[in-house]
Design a protein that fits this description.
The chain is about 40% helix and about 25% strand. By secondary structure, it is α+β, with helices and mostly antiparallel strands.
Amino acid sequence: MLADLDNGRHDTTLRLFQRVSRMSREQQFLLLRQLAGERVTREIFQLIVAMPESEQLQLLEQLGRMGESDAGERTLRLEGSEPRMREYPRKSCLINADYRVRGRDCRSYILDISIGGVFVETRERFTVGEEVILNFTLPDHRQPFSLRGRIAWSGPEGFGVKFEPLPPSQGSAIRRFVEEPK
């Protein structure tokens, strides 16, 4: 009987993991805030304690440059080579993307986008500064995009691309997509 309870609990936990993994990053943060409730500060402290000292120092430096009013409006990243704070508003998304790096064609997903660049999910690491050609189509937009950019940072979950200057029509389309309500 105890084994049946353990199996049922395991099944429930697995189903929760699957659902949470399908949520947008923004939805995951809202869920985390709801689950952590009054413990948010404690949870943040535990994450800080688990960080290597180099990441702690980088976070300390970033927080020192950030005014309190900016805290909820900008994103901090702890990967060493990524820009300190994002320059443009971003939108969480799940967009199929084909991209070319080092002469290799790859396929993955864009998980967030801004007028300045995207985050592409992949386990593969790339060198900062490498050229990327990214092909994707925004939801509710007929014309596919083929944009050039450079890898701004690369981490264990993917890489950030900083777009080269965008044609005005494509820049406007991305801006509209980012600004439209969810």
